[in-house]
Amino acid sequence: MTWSRRDFVRTGSAFAAAGFLGFDSTLLTDPHEAARRYRPFRPLLQDPDVRAIAMAALDAARASGARYADVRVASGASRRTIVQNRQVFTQLISGSLNFGVRVLVDGAWGFASSTIVTEAEAARVAQVAVRQSTLNPWGKTRTLELAPAPVVADGEWETPIDLDPWNYTIQDQLELQIQANEAVMNAGEAMGVPGVTGFSDFLFGKTDVVFASTEGSYIAQRFHGFGNQYGAQVISEDRMNFGSSSPESFRTGGYGWEAIDGIPFAADAEQAVEDAVMMMNAREPDVGRYDVVLDSSAVSSAFNASIVRALEFDRVLGYEMHAGGTSYLSPPEEVLGQFSFNNPKLNVRATGSAPRAGGMYRWDVEGVAPADYPLIREGVVMDYFTTREFAPQLDWWYRRNGMPPGSRGAAGSQGSVLVQVVAPSIAIMDPGEEDVSIDEMIAETEDGIYIHRGGFGYVDPPMLNLQFSASGMAHEIRDGKLGDPISQPNFLARTPDFWRSMDMIGGAGTFGYHGGGTGKGDPFQNIGRTVGAPAARFRQVNVFTYGRR
Amino acid sequence: MSRDSSAAAAGSTETGAKRTGIAATGEILTREEAEAIAKKALSFADPNAETIVNVSLANSQNTRIGINRITTQRDASLGGVAVTTRLNGRIAQGTTQRFDDEGLMQAVKWAEDSAREGPGGRQEMGRLIQPRDYPVPPGLWSEASREVDIPDRIRKAVEAIERADGYVAAGTLDLGINSMLVANSAGLVAYCRSTTGTMELGARTDDNTGSGWAGKAIYDFNDMDTVAVAAKATDKAERSRNPSAVEPARYTVILEPDAYASMIAFMMQYHMDLPSAQRGSSVFADPNGGTKIGQQVFDERLSFVSDPMDPDAPFCPFSGTGVPFDRTYWVQDGILRNLSFGDATAIERGLEYPLANPVSVRLQPKEGTELLTLDEMVETCERGIYVTRLTMGVADFRRLVFTGVTRDGTWLVERGRITRPIKNMRYVDSHMYFLNNLEAVGEPVLAATGGFMLPPVRSRDFNFTAIADAV
Predict the structure, then answer these.
(1) A269, B71, B323, B346: which is deepest, by most CB within 10 A?
(2) Is the CB of A115 less than 8 angstroms away from the CB of B71?
(3) Under 8 Å CB-to-CB from B373, ≥6 apart: which residues?
(4) pLDDT tens digits, residue range B209-265?
(5) Closest partner residue to A88 among B122, B405, B468, by Cβ?
(6) What confidence tens digit (pLDDT) does each residue in B66-88 have?
(7) What's the predicted TM-score (pTM) here?
(8) Do residues A301 and A529 lie in contact, with contact meaning Cβ atoms separated by under 8 Å?
């Protein structure tokens, strides 16, 4: 360990001396005060210590030979509580403080990160990053010109929320959870259902990230989010089958305390128990071909797994061959303007902003604002998710079609200590122009299955073979009417065939946003992003079961 | 910090020639440094509380390979402190990445403030582990791994890329240098350091019809033979060119250890605790009530044993709260013997401490079992499918059933030899089945992910459900 780091261990950080994060000894005695400490939005943008650390990293990188460098300094806090029935399993408050430096020497990247946030450490880390680049034998074999991007000298943004969760204590959170769980238990008792479990796992997170680059950008963003789960679980007498259900009023994503403030626990509980019991007792469908109607949550899941991820340009190029996987939408010269899902109803676009979207940002992890642009138009692939590194490889296409060049603002990472990769912004599958409802789709279906309230899409690494598993609820459709509940139907399809078979698409009234995201990289990163989609119907899908009963 | 713990203990500050520059890497906390941080945190704690402090600093190094060159590299020094407080009948935790006084104080106060107020008396309290000595697992720490510098990593990656010339190669070379310490308010201090590494490489033929993969985990960087990994991956790619389809059905399979390693990891992670089995939510719950302890759950030739002193796959000998990891048979000769439990159960059973689950495990064939190599499994197979790798998704958590596709080298075996490469297929199956339908088993090897010693196996009736025609 270098002397600077040794000193750090002994004397504490520059932040301590400068009062970073406003440390105040009254916090030690008053938990409510401790909770309130995060109340004011204190932009890191205006924190001179953070700026000094960022500049120390950039200066050291430049001095060691980097022709481009960026640094991200992050400070986060999260509060997680897990309660099952009335028993508290976890109450955890986590703090994080770290930074990562990315450098470019010739054509080679270097990246290094640390949790010791001092100027001296920033310089060391930047130099380690530069050494990696300089020693990479392929650095000199190519030139890597980043796509030009506007300099954002004083960017500032915060996820819009209504109620700051840090104005509430961990006890407020636990009391709400216990109430919620008790509502489920009481409903179970009133309905005479044995062994009903109320579970809840609430996680509020907040992270400040400062991004600075040698090009002169300096951006501070504060991200809020709420996640995890709440609902009822029932278990069969032989303990081989479960049913669980989460009330539709429970939402996750870009929320503050309002996510849980207004949940009508008592009103939801009975429905949740009823749904859970129904799914536990449901029979498996007969194997065969069916028309399937998917609600927006189920469409989103299939869409995210089989289209959104396949449009990540690093996968397309083979950079993720052994990690996140490749893509059937490759090579770009044969895909752009040519690859068609043969379905004019399929229109996909990317956007930077959606209400309450999880993982939403104003600037991505290389300081670029996410673009609003079409990805698939009437079934034909028009563009990809790109970053500054990859966008120049599509200049030929953009020029030919009069499209704006440059990064689409789709750089992401699971945290500032991990390397930037391509991660979709918010992907949206447009609803149909006519206001077709789910009821209408069901009414026009003779022999089918309605899958709603969620599902999992499993794809093979090129994303060409999709297996979809219902994770929420499913019902059979007979002669245009909903029939019996069905236990976890699955279907298999080749991705392009599946989307070609989409013959009805819901209107704006069926559209919704749901959790999506990507997984890739080494070390592996999971990056959560919202996706949006309407309900839709797919013809003659190959349904199977795991045959467990 | 000194790389030599005896020098550090003597108060020396030796720095190797390589690390005198400011751009040094590979640094972790010595026992003394970690202990100083933990003691500082404990000094901030409420004396009425029982407090456990966990301090760690890991240096993670990574070289990524894509399209036959080094694409990105990463060097991360990540520290962390976790404080667990037991106060007024409640348990709460606070964590920080900061080692300075303010950061430590925050973590302590977050935990204590959470525990002090609010709904209480609803958690299982445990006893603190009393001061004790832990064994030092041989082979867990390698000075050679600690000495690795950026050029060493790059050289190993370049050798692999050169060996894969003519193929499209992608992969990763990872190295971890780790230190962790647990201390508590009863005076316990437990320190462990380790070095781990992995090389994985995927290779495709230039016509994109054949794909191969190989991986290797190490503790000592000197054992990191990246050329051998690349040779294996490219050989598999070459031999899997132009695959043809076979009908999806139940087949005898020959599984390389890495094909099912993630299934074993998933079971160890989520299904090995007693409360889940008692409640009915794990695969080891008995449908008739209670757990399956005492029942046969796998073929009688197989045992699952976790041992930090395992010479081939050592790991730190204590949990995050200092609970010693003793040699534990979870499954012995096919019979479920143990599931992990907390301190309430330990007290009930008159034990000094809980049974903790380290997740790392060895799947050991019974003594006297004839062990077959992969080649011998092929030679003695009438008809079957040889599988290099499987992707894994969870199809049924309760029954521990998985789904996914074959990858990177799948062949048809007929009358004792590999006859042709076949197209990838989707499967729905589980080691809960194929480790019961066992035909043959081999010598356990360290899985590429590290932490798991698994044998190759040959099993009947593996369930392939569909063609997944993509390389």
Answers:
(1) A269
(2) no
(3) B442, B443, B456
(4) 999 999 999 999 999 999 999 999 999 999 999 999 999 999 999 999 999 999 999
(5) B122
(6) 999 999 999 999 999 999 999 88
(7) 0.93
(8) no
Distance CA A335, CA B375 (A): 42
Query: Where do runs of H (alpha helix) occur along A370-409?
Result: 395-400
CA geometry: angle A362, A368, A369, nearest 5 deg: 40
Minimum Cα–Cα distance from B8: chain A residue: A1
Task: Report the length, in residues, of chain B.
Answer: 471
pLDDT tens string B234-243: 999 999 999 9
Unique residue bearing structure tokens 């647990």: B182
For chain B, domain boundaries: 5-233, 235-263+369-467, 288-365
Q: Which residues of B touch A544 (CB under 8 A)?
A: 465
**Tens digit of each residue's pLDDT (9 = 90 or more) over A462-483:** 999 999 999 889 999 999 999 9
Residue type, A9: V
Asked if B118 lies within 8 A of A175 by C-beta distance, the reply is yes
Does B91 sit within 8 Å of A113, measured CB to CB? no
Contact B316, B362 (CB under 8 A): no
Answer for the pair B432, B399: CB distance below 8 angstroms, yes or no: yes
What structural domains does chain A harbor? 3-281 (3.30.2290.10), 288-544 (no CATH)
Kindly list the distances between the CA atom of residue A86 and the CA atoms of A186, A198, B122, B342, B354, in Å, as whole numbers in the listed order: 12, 8, 7, 19, 24
**Could you tell me which of A275, A77, A280, A91 has the C-alpha nearest to residue A178?**
A91
Cα B211 to Cα B388: distance, rounded to the nearest angstrom: 11
- Closest to A109 (Cα-Cα) out of A473, A341, A366: A366
Put simply, whether B314 touches A (Cβ < 8 Å) is no
Q: What average pLDDT does the segment B302-309 reach?
A: 98
Average pLDDT, chain B: 93
Question: CB contact, 8 Å: B23 with chain A?
Answer: yes
Q: Is B121 on the interface with A (CB under 8 A)?
A: no
How many Å separate Cα A473 from the centre of its chain?
23
- Using DSSP bridges, classify how beta strands A218-235 and A197-213 pair: parallel, antiparallel or unpaired: antiparallel
Residue B272, token pair as written in the block: 């090995």
Q: Given CB atoms, is B76 within the 8 Å cutoff of chain A?
A: yes
Q: Please tell me the distance from the alpha carbon of residue A277 to that of residue A254, in angstroms, as a whole number.
A: 31
Give the CA count within 13 Å in the CB-facing half-sphere of A111: 24
DSSP reduced 3-state for B218: strand
Distance from CA of A221 to the nearest CA of B (A): 20
> Please, which residues have CB within 8 angstroms of residue A177's CB and are 6 or more apart in sequence?
A81, A83, A200, A202, A230
CA nearest A18: which of B111, B100, B42? B100
Which chain B residues have a beta carbon less than 8 Å from that of A108? 70
Structure tokens at B67: 């399209």
Residue numbers of chain A with a pLDDT score lower than 50: 1-29, 31-32, 34-42, 549
Best CA proximity match to B239, nearest among B419, B97, B381: B419
Token pair listed for B196: 């781990």
- Restricting to B residues 249-268, those with a Cβ less than 8 Å away from any Cβ of A are none
* Two structure tokens written together for A64: 């060691």
Question: For B288, which residue in chain A has the nearest alpha carbon?
Answer: A238
CB count within 10 Å of CB A89 equals: 14
Bridge partners, residue B53, by sequence: B83, B183
**For B107, which of A95, A135, A456 is closest by C-beta distance?**
A95
CATH for the stretch B5-233: 3.30.2290.10
Closest CA to B49 of B189, B184, B188: B184
Contacts of A174 in chain B (CB under 8 A): 118-119
